């Protein structure tokens, strides 16, 4: 629908900013329609983005292409930063509180105990998995 809108009705997209806003509205519209119909809203937005990148992108003006790509790049980086900030803050707010009432049994002194062994093991697993994946992909691309 957005491709037809930008191709046939150029009066609605008289500026690059309005083109970007209309592209955003179609993304939100796909999200809300899927959410309202008990569908997967994330998959709906993904399919909408892929379809709009394939069809709508070529009907935008050159200024609209530039502004929309910069806008969505900034919004994506901002969302990624917020997620990483939240993860970082959650690490520092994970405090073991002493269970003084004995609610969780006599052997549990803390409600949320740290487990250094599992942190170390998981870190080693992640590093080994990452190195293995990178070397494997590198070998596949270099050898082909």
Quote the distance from N terminus to C terminus. 41 Å
Alpha-beta content class: mainly alpha
Into which percent range does the helicity of residues fall? over 70%
> What is the approximate shape?
elongated
Order of helices and strands: HHHHH
Q: What can you tell me about this protein's structure?
A:
The chain is built from five helices and no strands. With 144 residues, the protein is mostly helical. It has a domain at 1-73. The chain starts with a helix and ends with a helix.
How are the SSEs ordered, and which strands pair?
Blueprint: H1 2-8, H2 16-36, H3 41-55, H4 62-92, H5 116-143
Helix pairs in contact: 2-3, 2-4
Quick rundown:
The chain is mainly α and about 140 residues long. About 70% of the residues lie in helices and about 0% in strands.
Keywords, separated by commas or semicolons:
mainly alpha, elongated, 5 helices, single chain
């Amino acid at each position: 629908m957005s491709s037809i809108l930008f191709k046939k009705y150029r009066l609605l997209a008289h500026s690059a900013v309005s083109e970007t806003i209309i592209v955003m509205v179609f993304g939100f519209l796909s999200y809300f329609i899927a959410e309202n119909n008990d569908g997967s809203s994330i998959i709906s937005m993904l399919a909408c983005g892929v379809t709009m990148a394939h069809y709508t992108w070529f009907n935008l003006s050159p200024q609209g292409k530039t502004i929309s790509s910069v806008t969505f790049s900034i919004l994506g980086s901002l969302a990624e930063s917020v997620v990483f900030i939240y993860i970082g803050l959650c690490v520092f707010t994970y405090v073991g509180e002493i269970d003084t009432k004995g609610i969780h049994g006599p052997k549990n002194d803390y409600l949320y105990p740290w487990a250094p062994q599992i942190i170390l093991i998981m870190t080693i697993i992640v590093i080994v998995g990452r190195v293995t994946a990178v070397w494997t992909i590198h070998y596949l691309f270099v050898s082909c």
